[in-house]
Amino acid sequence: MDVTELLESASLLVPEEVATENDISVRDVWDYLAHDEWQIALSLLEELGDGHPLPLTFWEQLAEAAEQLGLERSAAWCRWRCSEIRNGMLRADLTLRPATEARRKTPISCHGVLRPMWDIGNLSSTGGASVSIARLWVEDMPVLEPGGRATVRLIPLTPTHWAHVKTGQQINMHEDRTVAGTAVVLEVHLPTPAMPTR
Asked: pLDDT tens digit string along 94-141?
């Protein structure tokens, strides 16, 4: 499919009653598509998807359209949203330790590249702490400096490890044995386990 077909197909997955805080709806998207304003239409669809749960196909089509348009950041965000649907997502308020107190001396790239380990309260077979891996996306910032604080989105590598994590829980980020940062969980949206077949 070409960009127009992808964006049209994605827009058909947005319920007509859904609107952004600025009252942008799918009707506005169609107006931009009619005038070949693909980048604006893509941006509006992303915004509509951020405010309302939409299916995996929606985000896959937006990712492909963004790639065809050469919009790297949008493509990465849409692929990230696909991963959130597949593996679940947690939002948390993360504070990194200052560079004087931690191993990290450089900023974190905020767009889903880092895969730190997290102490979420799991224990190993010997009774020690067992860490779990989750990819990290920092919201609304290009980088997060050591000592900085931001809202982050986490995609668990193994969602079942995170099933017990609750809103309000404190979890620790590790890049080695030392604590690199501390986060308080704001939201938990893990995938629904598949129903057993008979």
From this structure: 999 999 888 888 898 878 889 999 999 988 888 888 899 999 999 988
Q: Which domain holds residue 156?
A: 88-189
Whole-model pTM?
0.87
Q: How far apart are CA 41 and CA 111, in angstroms?
A: 22
Q: Which of 25, 54, 86 is the last residue of a domain?
A: 86
H helices within the chain, ranges in order?
A: 3-11, 26-34, 38-51, 56-69, 72-87
- Nearest in space to 61 (alpha carbons), one of 52, 167, 49: 49
Residue 196 in any domain: the answer is: no
Tokens of 148: 């900085």
Measured CA distances, 72 to 65, 105, 111, 171 (Å): 11, 27, 11, 31
Domain contains 112: yes
Q: Residue 26, CB half-sphere, CA atoms under 13 Å: how many?
A: 17
For the cut 50, the answer to whether the pLDDT of residue 172 exceeds it is yes
